[in-house]
Structures are given as structure tokens and as C-alpha cells.
Design goal:
171 residues, alpha+beta, four-stranded mixed beta sheet, 4 helices, globular
Length: 171
Amino acid sequence: MKAQFFDSIKQISNADWQRLNSSACPFLNYQFFNSLEQSLSADAERGWKAHHLVLSDDNESNDFATNTVEAILPMYLKSHSWGEYVFDWDWADAYQQNNLSYYPKLVATLPFTPVTSDKVLSNKFHQGQLFEVLSTHCQQQGINSWHMLFCPKIAEAELPEGVYQRNTVQF
């Protein structure tokens, strides 16, 4: 498998996205993410820099268009915690007090939408299978952490070492 990150949904085909999207959640539709980017509601200037993960078969070609897309995980590099409905400002403050950078953080979420759904668009992969790819990418790029927000609960036995699940109550 070949993992690539794209800074715009326009770099991912609508056909691939919709082919892999088996969710009934309307917020996982390609047009929803495209509208957020086109309207500049979710863009780098507003703290939502698109950084969508695409897994494709590795046919030894550097041409993305010739590879078969197997999974898509909509993601953003966040420079703040607004619009996530997850309140981690205490974490950010603790990092700052220790002269560490909490941001940017890599977040798999539906922007401005606190809806639980499987964020991984795939017929072949599930969220737990992407943890190593995400951890490696963050280490290579100097990104402090990655987060999957409002996703299905994962059994503790399935969590690899160094990956933690935070459960909160939504009112």
C-alpha cells in the first residue's frame, strides 16, 4: 500500500471518494468536504489545512491516477481547537507551559460537525489499520499528535502501544 497526503479534496476524485463511501452519514459525502474547501470555511487561514490521507495499491508508478484508491481518511492539520467540539485546550496549555508545541495537530473529523461515524472510507481497511501510517507520518513530519474525533469505539486490545482512546460525553 502507498500512503499519500493531499492538501485539497480536488486532488482526490469524486468517483473514488463516493465508491469507497458506504456511510449513510451525509457529512461524509464528497460534496460536503468540497463545499467547505470551496467556501474557504475549512482552509489553512482559518486553521483547517486539508491533509487527506489516501491509501492506494502500489503498482510502482509515481502517477497517482494509475493507482487504485483503497481508502480515504479526511484529515486536517489544525492550528487551533475551534470547530471540533472536543475541548483539549488544557492539553494545549500544558504543552505551552512546558515550552512544547501542541499545534499543528493532525485531526480526522467532520469539520464543525460533532457526528459519530467511521471516518475511514474503505471497503478493505478499518481505522485501527491506519494507526501505524498516521504515527509514522506524524513522526516524519514533526507533527505532535493525531486524533480521530467522534469515531466508533475501539476495543482496548486492538489499540497499539502508544495509542490512547479518550472517551467523553456529548451533551
